Amino acid sequence: MITDLSSDVIKGVGIGLRSAHYQDILNYKPTVPWFEVLSDNYLSPGGMPLYYLERIRQDYPVNLHGVGMSLGSTDPLNLDYLLRLKRLAQRIEPAYISDHLAWISVNGCYLNDLMPLPYTKEVIEHLARRILQVQEFLGRQILLENPSLYLTFTESTMPEWEFIQELLEKADCYLLLDLNNVYVSATNQGFDPFDYLNALPANRVKEIHLAGYEEREDYLFDTHGYPVHNPVWKLYQKALERFGTVPTLIEWDTDIPDFEVLMVEASKAQQQLAKVELRIGN
């Protein structure tokens, strides 16, 4: 039986949980509605990371966000990885489990990056079969995160937003909409990020990520290591207008700052959420 995620189970603006902040969270119990963890860091059955996660889970809802499913690969699904993820989910009881629209393995060898896919009907069929298998194994629907891209494939026959829309319906899964990734890809590839948002199915967007990019000489580089930039805040406003008050995460993966910095970013997002909630209420 697969758990249906059609109803929202978390609300407000969460923060990505990082080991540098364990003690701050346990000592001060900050007012954060939920945390999201990189599930791959907690797949061992013991150890200090899992110890801290379980303690924090006693006070906060948690999402599991991973990079290890390699959904786009032609390798067989890694059942050992999925089994460990399922056991972690049974232990933590996350609100959502998510991974990426990408592949990271070939012939059993794993890469240290999320690799892009060509956008074709054949790839949709391939991904949908694997996602359905994963959801059956885990007993729940999952969320997929859109990538940040620096190139396009000559084999692609459709834009990313059309590809994602068809995939979500065929696989009966949901979208983790990373707005930083949308803006990075739009700038690097020359499309309108607002057209991207307008094309997505509103009923399939379950979570939003906000993060920061790095400006290189002639492209944007997705580091998730800076405050959210103004163009991404504008996208966020548009996304809330289109999709409603979707649970939102402040994600910061490199050069981790003090926890207070993340709280400031979260408060900015919460203010935008509150304005939308007020309009809906009126």
Explain how this protein is built.
The protein has 282 residues and is α/β, with parallel strands linked by helices. It has a single domain (13-281), classed as Divalent-metal-dependent TIM barrel enzymes (TIM Barrel), CATH 3.20.20.150. It has helices at residues 22-28, 48-57, 79-92, 121-138, 160-171, 179-189, 193-199, 230-243, 259-281, and strands at 13-16, 35-38, 62-65, 97-100, 103-106, 109-115, 143-145, 174-178, 205-210, 214-215, 220-221, 248-250. An eight-stranded parallel β-barrel has the order 1-2-3-4-7-8-9-12. Strands 5-6 form a two-stranded antiparallel ribbon. Strands 10-11 form a two-stranded antiparallel ribbon. The N and C termini lie far apart (39 Å).
Q: What's the topology here?
A:
Elements: E1 13-16, H1 22-28, E2 35-38, H2 48-57, E3 62-65, H3 79-92, E4 97-100, E5 103-106, E6 109-115, H4 121-138, E7 143-145, H5 160-171, E8 174-178, H6 179-189, H7 193-199, E9 205-210, E10 214-215, E11 220-221, H8 230-243, E12 248-250, H9 259-281
Parallel strand pairs: 1-2, 1-12, 2-3, 3-4, 4-7, 7-8, 8-9, 9-12
Antiparallel strand pairs: 5-6, 10-11
Helix pairs in contact: 4-5, 7-8, 8-9
